[in-house]
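Review session, final week

We close the course with one last complete record, chosen because it touches almost every idea we covered. It is VanZ family protein, a protein from Uliginosibacterium flavum with 124 residues. Go through it on your own first, then we will talk.
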Amino acid sequence: MKSLRYSRWRIAFAAFCVLALAAGLFVGGAQPAAVGLIPPPWDKLAHACVFGAIAFLLHGGLRLRAWLAVLLAVLLGAGDEIHQAFLPGRFAGLDDWIADLFGALLGVLLVGVLRRNLLPPRIS
């Protein structure tokens, strides 16, 4: 019996969640209702949470290396900021991208903490 840690279903679920979050950013973010949906400074917390979740799923669920999970998350964040620059009522900001980076780093860190504390030690 395969371990749940390496299950194909877990990988597929993580990939689905990453794609759903990315679609939510670009499709949901383009809707007029997205303008001013989360007021400052809470929007930075929302950025950190979303991109932390993306990095968490990339590293913990898809088993990508930590640096690659962070890189992909912040590239997605940069794409989101560029996308926002072309939407009426929306603004691109370096501060939002920095919140994305901070969240991605925290997401990868959380995977490491959970692995150390929740998974049984490997026997060599």
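Two points worth writing down before the exam:
The two ends are 20 Å apart (CA to CA).
The chain is about 70% helix and 0% strand.
Good luck, everyone.
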